[in-house]
Amino acid sequence: MTTSQTRGARYRARRLQGYLADIWSRREFAWYLAAGNLKARNVSTALGLFWWVLNPLLLGLVYFLVFGIVFAGGSRPDDHVAYLLAGMFAFHFTHQSMTGGANSILQNSKLVANLKFPKMVLLVSGVIESGIGFLSSLVVFFLIAGPAAGIWPTVSFAWVLAALPIHVMMNLGLAAMVARLAVPFRDINNFLPYLTRLWLYLSPIIWPLSFLESAGETVSSLARLNPMFHLIAMYRTALMGAPLEPSSLLVSAGWAVTLLMLGTGIFVTYENKMARYL
């Protein structure tokens, strides 16, 4: 590496360090913005925050009524209700984070246009908001799975401490990617529901893992490349005590770091140009 390349790398490292420090100094702003958005979003509804849980719950009920009949006998997973809800709640966290990323800049256009601050703070706030709803859904999971299938928190619940940080990093990276596209291309908000619904169908949520055994090695290998595949497995281990492949933690962490670096890199490079589109 030449002297100029070394200096360039050091300069970029200092800028990154300063950027991260700037975000950290605004952590209280991110928290209060998330709390304020939650309050504003739910103040006009009778169920409030429970709607965050109710949306994936109702969607899970639809899939249970339809696929619970199709997945009859040995093809249906044991504890189907818990199996379905564990995947639905985890995926809804990602879906809400991506949707929040698409809207975080557009809904705060005056802040972006008039104040100089790291715009990643808005994305962090959106992920915090979605994370609060997701943590609430874990309580609802046991309220349903406990009486229905006798599934209660055990020592395996400690896996949440590993899955949640990985999940947050992945969601922040995805939110940054979507936010980068949503500012100049507003139509991304119309395409996003279809893309996430397709991703839902390709994830092991409404279909059992036993499908992969008869699908062939190629299909099984492709399915395991899905970033949600191993992450959902970690949550099912935490919530249901399901066995976990040793590679799941490493693969999930690898996806999370890759998406976070890619998403934030794309977003930070572009964020100074956002105001012209608002």
Brief digest:
The chain is mostly helical and 278 residues long.
Task: List descriptors.
278 residues; mainly alpha; 12 helices
By secondary-structure content and strand pairing, the structural class works out as mainly alpha
**Helix-strand sequence:** HHHHHHHHHHHH
Q: Provide mean pLDDT, rounded.
A: 81
Helix content: over 70%
Number of strands: 0
Shape category? globular
Q: Major sheet: size, sense and barrel closure?
A: none
N- to C-terminal distance: 41 Å
**What is the domain total for the residues?**
1
Q: What fraction strand?
A: under 5%
Could you list the spans in which at least 5 consecutive residues all have pLDDT below 50? none
> Given the structure, what is the number of helices?
12
Task: Give structural notes.
The protein is mainly alpha-helical. It has one domain. It is built from twelve helices and no strands. α4 (80-107) runs antiparallel to α6. The mean pLDDT is 81.
